[in-house]
């Protein structure tokens, strides 16, 4: 390629001549004049509407065929795992909820289950608190899958799918706000239980919303399932079979699209999932279309689990472990201004005794001690196996907390699913993996 081309320039590296495309029409970019093979490297992202956040993809192209694909990460690095070493065990919940910001309740639950195992209080967690955790996680699974379907549809041109997905997600975020006070990053799950019980009108309202969701969720299925245009963009795209998934450590919908029904809720039950009736959704297409179908089916299965959880929550009970050396106040009530704690709650804390007030102060400011040891606790997040490796030296702060985030692991599949395909298919392949960069970079 001549160096005086208006829209492209070239330079020589140790690997040969590299052509950098800066704009203009594709037809104006001519091949290399000296007979060497043309190689164009394109940066897709880190600011690109189809990279699910600040993901950078370095694509080497031969025309429109991707010959090499590499991921560039780290643009959203927050240092959350390191920050946890300087926070109490309860304060850490506020940090971990912000990692995979589309599934915060899974981050919180995995971490809290690990802390509870270190404390040796797993069997002391109230049943109502465990059921509320399941309720919130399954609602969160639905909202996360809705984002995956909405953004995946938008990136491939199905704008109606995007509208439908975010429309339904708003219903679930309103439920989260009603229960926790926040739409996202609630820090609601705490070591020993949950921050507070459900509001009095929560159960009938959630049941009402479930009816609306079941009715509206059909719109996305009717729009895209067996749609020839949608299948043309997703069927056979982003192919990764079971052998490839096992080699790369894949989990979640990407793995289950190969036909393997691996789900930690069934294989390694936690939070009493073995007592709920639901099916593990699988497909055998190994492609982006199969992963799309799995997410649709998992939404329906999560709705079934939510209904079962609501039936169990009809009976009242405590939502925090009884041990006062660990339990934060869980019977909170909001003041008349809608903010902070009510005067009745504050009066109860301060009027019990001076010792009780001092204990409450020290519990909040210093935190409780966790016996020395280490555990690994995994949960089935919307994207796959989310594991928390928590290490304690016996102090009031974690010595080390490291998360196995499925988005980080699943991104290894980008070269396997994209190389050899068209550059347009990279969009569908990455969307079917559904990475969240907050969980990747941490």
Descriptive report:
This protein has 442 residues and is α+β, with helices and mostly antiparallel strands. 44% of the residues lie in helices and 13% in strands. The chain has 17 helices and ten strands. Strands 3-4-5 form a three-stranded antiparallel beta sheet. A three-stranded antiparallel beta sheet has the order 8-9-10. Strands 1-2 form a two-stranded antiparallel ribbon. A hairpin with a 2-residue loop joins strand 4 (56-62) and strand 5. Helix 5 runs antiparallel to helix 6 (202-224) and helix 12 packs across helix 13 (354-365). The relative contact order is 0.17.
List the main descriptive attributes of the protein structure presented here.
single chain; 442 residues; disordered N terminus; alpha+beta; 3-stranded antiparallel beta sheet; 10 strands; 13% strand
Q: What would a concise description of this structure say?
A:
It is built from 17 helices and 10 strands. The chain is of the alpha+beta class.
Which spans have pLDDT < 50 for at least 5 consecutive residues? Answer: 1-7
Task: Tell me the number of strands.
Answer: 10
Arrangement of strands in the largest sheet: 3-4-5
Q: Please estimate the helix content.
A: 40-55%
Terminal CA distance reads 42 Å
Query: How many helical stretches?
Result: 17
How does the major sheet shape up?
3 strands, antiparallel
């Amino acid at each position: 390629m001549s160096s005086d081309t208006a829209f492209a320039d070239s330079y020589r590296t140790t690997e040969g001549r590299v052509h950098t495309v800066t704009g203009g029409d594709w037809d104006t970019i001519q091949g290399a004049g000296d007979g060497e093979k043309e190689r164009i490297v394109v940066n897709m992202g880190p600011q690109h509407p189809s990279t699910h956040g600040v993901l950078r993809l370095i694509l080497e192209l031969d025309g429109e065929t991707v010959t090499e694909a590499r991921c560039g990460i780290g643009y959203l690095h927050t240092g959350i795992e390191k920050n946890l070493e300087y926070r109490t065990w309860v304060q850490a919940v506020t940090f971990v909820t912000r990692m995979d910001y589309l599934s915060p309740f899974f981050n919180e639950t995995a971490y809290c289950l690990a802390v509870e195992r270190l404390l040796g209080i797993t069997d002391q967690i109230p049943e109502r608190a465990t059921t509320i955790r399941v309720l919130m996680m399954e609602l969160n699974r639905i909202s996360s899958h809705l984002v995956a379907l909405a953004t995946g549809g938008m990136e491939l041109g199905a704008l109606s799918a995007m509208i439908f997905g975010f429309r339904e997600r708003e219903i679930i975020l309103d439920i989260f706000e009603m229960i926790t006070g926040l739409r996202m990053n609630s820090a609601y799950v705490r070591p020993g239980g949950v921050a507070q019980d459900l509001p009095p009108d929560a159960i009938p309202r959630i049941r009402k919303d479930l009816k609306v969701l079941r009715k509206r969720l059909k719109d996305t299925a009717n729009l895209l399932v067996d749609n020839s245009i949608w299948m043309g963009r997703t069927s056979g795209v982003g192919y990764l079979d079971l052998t490839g998934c096992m080699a790369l450590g894949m989990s979640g919908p990407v793995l289950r699209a190969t036909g393997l029904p691996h789900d930690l809720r069934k294989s390694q039950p936690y939070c009493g999932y073995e007592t709920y009736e639901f099916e593990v959704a699988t497909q055998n297409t190994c492609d982006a279309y199969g992963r799309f179908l799995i997410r649709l089916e998992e939404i329906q299965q999560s709705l079934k689990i939510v209904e079962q959880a609501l039936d169990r929550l009809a009976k009242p009970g405590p939502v925090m472990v009884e041990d006062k050396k660990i339990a934060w106040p869980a019977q909170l009530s909001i003041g008349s201004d809608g903010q902070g704690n009510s005067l009745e709650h504050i009066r109860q804390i301060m009027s019990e005794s001076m010792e009780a007030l001092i204990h409450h102060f020290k519990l909040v400011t210093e935190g409780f001690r966790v016996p020395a040891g280490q555990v690994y606790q995994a949960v089935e997040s919307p994207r796959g196996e989310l594991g928390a490796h928590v290490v304690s030296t016996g102090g009031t702060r974690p010595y080390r907390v490291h998360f196995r985030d499925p988005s980080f692991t699943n991104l290894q599949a980008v070269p396997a699913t994209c190389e050899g395909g068209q550059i347009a298919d990279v969009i569908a392949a990455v969307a079917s993996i559904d990475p969240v960069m907050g969980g990747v970079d941490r």
